[in-house]
Structure formats: C-alpha cells, structure tokens
Design a protein that fits this description.
UCP030140, 162 residues, mainly alpha, Dimeric dUTPase (All-alpha-NTP-PPase superfamily)
Length: 162
Amino acid sequence: MNFPKLFEMQSFLDQNIRLTQGIPVDKDLTEDKKDALDVEISELQNEIKYFKFWKRPETRKVNREAALEEYVDGLHFFLSLGNDYQVPLECGYREILVKDDLQGQFRIIKHYISIMNGPMHWHIAFGLYLGLAEMLGFSDEEIERKYLEKNTINHQRQAEGY
C-alpha cells in the first residue's frame, strides 16, 4: 500500500469534512475518531459473523466485498488518527501482529484503540489491524482500491450535505 498517498488523501478528506461541517480547526476530534473506529471495527465483526454461535454455520456466510468495505471504513479512521498523532508518512508499517484467532485479534485491536493516546499505541493497533487484513485474506491492492473508491464516496457525501 502506498501509505504516504493514503495519509495525504485522508488529511484532505478530514480538512474537507471540517470545512463542510463547520468544525473549528482547533477542535480536538481524537476521542470521536477513536469511538468511530471502534464502531467500524464492530461493524466488521458483525459482517464476518465469527461470534454468532447461535446461527447455523451455513447461515454465517461472509459477504467478502461488504467485509472489505467495513475494513476500509476502519482504515479511514486509522489514517485520520495517524495524522492527528503525526505518525511519519514514510514509515513502512509492515510489523503485522497476528493473534491465534479472529476473536483474539479483534479484542486486542479494540484494547489498543481504547488506550490509544499517541503514536506508540497507534502503531501497535495499526499493525494488528494489518494483521487482521492478512487473516481475512485481503490483499494490499484490494484494500487500497477499496479505500480510493470509498474516499471518493466520502467526498461526494460531503458535497451533497451528508
């Protein structure tokens, strides 16, 4: 993934949202973004359905494209928080940490998001999030493609008064 490009695109989207929504530049949105990221990760969990023990396995079919879109929605907030924490754009971000199972991976990601207060926790959480993509079989190319699509949609939504 071309992280410098994605960080810059996210910065432009965030500036557009602030301008469109009338949010002052000095208003700190970090906690709101962390909450939004947590919700997006929960939506991804709901799409993957791994925890729905009450449903028969054949009814837990995953819509891969919908799961990828939820993953990318979370990526938007990770990038936004990375910009807020002034994470260097040129970092490789290839330290992918993977737990033994999806439930463990989701839980540790959410843990680090809940305690995130700077670049160190962001790096750990983001590495885990990249590991989650690997566990789900999402390639860098398809993540970046979906991010570009969704970023365009997000700009359109702002232009249309979302």
